[in-house]
Amino acid sequence: MYLELSNYVVLTGILIVTGLFLNKWEPPIKKQYVALMLLVTGVALGHFMVDNPAYGFLIAGLVFYKDELVSEIKLVKESVLEVKKEKSELKGESK
User: Fold this and answer.
1) How far from chain centre, in Å, is Cα 40?
2) Among 62, 38, 40, 42, residue whose Cα is nearest residue 50
């Protein structure tokens, strides 16, 4: 169990480092090629390391779309805080 868990962590780390490496490459590599390389690497490593190519595909997708995911999460957080602020202001006005 412990060895399998460490393989998942190592696979995730390899894909993160590979994604960072490909994004910093000079001259820049086209986004679709970066995505393709990450997905192929993720599926191959997922198959050989943890016998689950879908996990490698999933983590590769998350690594590729990390910037968009982070910005969307920040947007949702700001929206929730705005709603809470407006709700507290409305409660203050109604008293």
Assistant:
1) 16
2) 42
- The pTM (predicted TM-score) of the whole model is 0.73
Note the maximum CA span of the chain.
64
Task: Identify the pLDDT of residue 28.
Answer: 92
Here the tokens at position 45 are 């490593």
- The amino acid sitting at 9 is V
Residues 6+ positions from 29 with CB-CB distance below 8 Å: 22, 37
- The CA-CA-CA angle for residues 32, 69, 20, to 5°, reads 55
What burial class does residue 74 get, using C-beta atoms within 10 Å of its C-beta: 0-12 exposed, 13-18 middle, 19+ buried?
exposed
- For residue 34, give every residue at least 6 positions away whose Cβ sits within 8 Å of its Cβ, in sequence order, or none: 19, 22, 23, 64
